[in-house]
């Protein structure tokens, strides 16, 4: 696969990550590029076990992407964005009926969480993400740099999972292993950050209840994760917790919308500010609210020509989180109309004060539509065994 290496600096804080053993043959259809992630139930179970082992030790060890503070730059305002067709949208899961009551405080959406993966140095990393509407209720939206390796000629990142509602090593609604990734051809091949978005289908959620000591015969019959020491035999039975959208819902998706609209953005900021201050821990999600820029935002060194921007003083870890228009506090649902891609310091005081997102247009809609009708399936069976 041909790739063009871009400077690591600038407003974008993208991770350089390695997809160990998960890359496959890339399939492209027009602007849609799709890559396999965990292939089959055995690999999916292995990925889930990697993160869940030792009471979520790998989850707790993971960190948000960090960067050289000198690389945070000021982005440039340009002309307006260019919709390539009529506005369109897909409604959120569970928002078919509009509520009457209005809530003034901000209720965090159940759909948001963290995506975890392993970088090229073997370190556990994470970004923010959200569940979105799809036919099989199995789809996650995040930034493409949180799915695709931008530093090597490999494809998707290793051991990729989504954990909605993640909190300090806990996965309250289960672990959802990535099955297939969809992004724009221009990001996959040219690392064009105007297309820094991705949609990932995930298997049914998996939950683990701890190791169980069994006899030798049951140990031999069990097809899931297991280990023996001397004459002691242990299995790690798993539970199928169902589809992502059935458990936490799914945000809608909108494209070719006018700029200058109010949005709420969500994510898990964690890294320090360029001046060294550490206002966020990455433990709990945060939000910003405001009107997006009416003009496009450019960053020539990253080939960015048509991002939209929002005033928001968050830090990396927030990357990949959703920008929700028409957010309903009561139902905690809205329409994903962007994902956090880059961070910028506009007034030069060594503190991030602006975030940007690719403009969601008809080409974004094509990527989303290619992903939303793809089935994933189960990983484990009724007795904790690998599903066949």
UniProtKB/TrEMBL annotation:
<feature type="region of interest" description="Disordered">
    <location>
        <begin position="77"/>
        <end position="98"/>
    </location>
</feature>
<keyword id="KW-0732">Signal</keyword>
<protein>
    <recommendedName>
        <fullName>Peptidase</fullName>
    </recommendedName>
</protein>
<dbReference type="InterPro" id="IPR043504">
    <property type="entry name" value="Peptidase_S1_PA_chymotrypsin"/>
</dbReference>
<feature type="signal peptide">
    <location>
        <begin position="1"/>
        <end position="28"/>
    </location>
</feature>
<dbReference type="InterPro" id="IPR009003">
    <property type="entry name" value="Peptidase_S1_PA"/>
</dbReference>
């Amino acid at each position: 696969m041909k790739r063009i290496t871009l400077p690591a600096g600038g407003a974008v804080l993208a991770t350089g990550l390695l997809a160990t053993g998960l890359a496959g043959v890339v399939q492209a259809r027009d602007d849609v590029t799709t890559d396999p992630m965990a292939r089959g139930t055995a690999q999916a179970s292995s990925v889930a076990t990697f993160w869940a082992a030792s009471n979520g030790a790998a989850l707790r060890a993971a960190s948000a992407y960090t960067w050289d503070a000198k690389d945070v730059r000021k982005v440039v305002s340009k002309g307006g964005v260019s919709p390539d067709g009529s506005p369109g949208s897909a409604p959120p899961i569970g928002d078919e009926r509009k509520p009457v009551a209005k809530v003034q405080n901000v209720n965090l959406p159940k759909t948001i969480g963290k995506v975890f993966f392993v970088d090229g140095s073997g370190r556990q990393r994470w970004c923010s993400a959200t569940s979105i509407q799809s036919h099989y209720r199995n789809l996650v939206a995040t930034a493409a740099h949180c799915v695709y390796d931008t530093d090597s000629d490999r494809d998707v990142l290793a051991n990729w999972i989504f954990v909605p509602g993640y909190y300090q090593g806990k996965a309250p609604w289960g672990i959802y292993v990535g099955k297939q990734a969809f992004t724009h051809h221009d990001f996959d091949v040219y690392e064009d950050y105007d297309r820094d978005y991705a949609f990932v289908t995930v298997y049914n959620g998996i939950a683990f209840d701890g190791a169980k000591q069994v006899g030798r015969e049951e140990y031999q019959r069990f097809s899931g994760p297991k280990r023996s020491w001397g004459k002691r035999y242990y299995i790690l039975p798993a539970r199928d917790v169902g589809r992502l959208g059935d458990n936490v819902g799914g945000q809608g998706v909108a494209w070719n919308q006018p700029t200058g609209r109010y949005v709420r953005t969500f994510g898990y900021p964690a890294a320090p500010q360029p001046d060294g201050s550490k206002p966020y821990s990455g433990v709990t999600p945060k939000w910003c609210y405001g009107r997006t820029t009416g003009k496009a935002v450019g960053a020539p060194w990253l080939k960015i020509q048509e991002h939209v921007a929002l005033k928001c003083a968050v830090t990396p870890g927030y990357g990949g989180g959703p920008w929700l228009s028409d957010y309903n506090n009561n139902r905690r649902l809205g329409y994903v109309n962007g994902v956090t891609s880059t961070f910028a310091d506009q007034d030069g005081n060594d503190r991030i004060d602006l975030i940007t997102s690719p403009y969601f247009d008809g080409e974004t809609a094509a990527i989303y539509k290619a992903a939303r009708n793809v089935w994933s399936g189960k990983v484990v069976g009724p007795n904790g065994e690998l599903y066949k």
